[in-house]
Amino acid sequence: MEFCLFFLGRLVGETRLYFGCRRKSEDFIYRKELEGYIEAGSLSLRVAFSRDQEKKIYVQHLLAEDGEEVWKILESGGHFYVCGDAKNMARDVHNTLVAIVSKQGSKNEAEANSYIKSLKTRGRYVVDAWS
Q1: CA-to-CA distance for 21 and 23, rounded, in angstroms?
Q2: DSSP code of 45?
Q3: 119 pLDDT more than 80
Q4: Average pLDDT of 94-116?
Q5: Model pTM greater than 0.85?
Q6: What is the CA radius of gyration of the chain?
Q7: What is the DSSP string of 72-126?
């Protein structure tokens, strides 16, 4: 199923939110709003609740699992919004994206970093991180 978002009346491509926090019951901010977007078909959501199970799951783990799909979405003009902890998350997510772009796009590390920088510059990859 394809999820798309319209911005100022323009189709901007598939929109997927990777959201990470400790506990679903305590930290899942904007849950109702996000569920509304999902129900409307305008958002795909992947969540990482690191303390809700024995083995910790973080946003970067979900991105790595979705590597091939992440690459396809990016190459088709999709937008990614990643939310989570600023302490380690931003660095870990960046490193995971570099690995995805390197592998799926057959790029070296410098080319992958340049690709990701270009996505950020064009507003197609946004990180919302807090501590």
Answers
A1: 6
A2: E
A3: yes
A4: 96
A5: no
A6: 15
A7: HHHHTT-EEEEEEETTTHHHHHHHHHHHHHHHHHT--HHHHHHHHHHHHHTTSEE
